[in-house]
Amino acid sequence: MALTGAGSAGKSPAMMGGAGWASPAQNKRLSAKLSNFVRRTAIRSSTACRLRRGRLFVERLCPTEADSILDLGGGSGGHIAEIVPYRANITIGELDAEALARAAQTYGFGTLQLDGGEKFPVADRQYDVVFCSSVIEHVTGAKEITYDLKDGRQFTASARAAQANFAAEVRRISKRYFVQTPYKYFPIEQHSFLPFVVVLLPRRWQVRLMRFLYDHHWFKPVYPDFRLLTIKEMRALFPDAEIVLERYCGFVKSVIAIRT
Fold this sequence. Notes:
The chain is an alpha/beta fold. It has helices at 24-61, 78-83, 97-107, 143-146, 152-173, 203-215, 231-237, and strands at residues 69-72, 90-94, 110-113, 127-133, 174-182, 188-189, 194-195, 242-248, 251-259.
């Protein structure tokens, strides 16, 4: 920054060579640059992990064109499309009707409209393979209630019951399955990009914090509808599965239940 001479009376402190951070405009630019850097880093990390996870799915479950595959909570189908080259044998199971329409139009996938009920509209062992990535932690009860539920005991009770039912349904409808969820104690909470201590806060504080960040344009806004799981809880939810730990920089990043 060029400094002005002594004859610059009346100029602002920032123009007279004050600290760059003293300028609100520069503050905003630095904040935007930092936010963009963190976002790009997180996207690269997430993409690398998703690719590695996809390879593990293929290696362990060996899906073929003859297998009927259900991507449970698969959104518009983009993730499973990156992993499996087949189209005709894949079904996307979703609550969101618009996402299902995009999955059918973009990839030609079959669709299964879920209604949020306790029992999936699927017969026992109907699918050869069920794939489920970063979904079960969001299965915490009726969203119109859990978004604003500040009572920690009520939220935990609702989430545990919903997650236990979801896991039982996955086991019921599949012959083989691959269920992945972010690990509760990874150093960075993976939905909000906040330090993991956020998961230790009382529920009412979590709701307030995430609502505040959402209103103030945090670079990864998120609704507090999720309940992260531990390794022990995943073992209890999927007792007939092998539990595989995905690591990143030495830390457990996600927990995967695999039944082959």
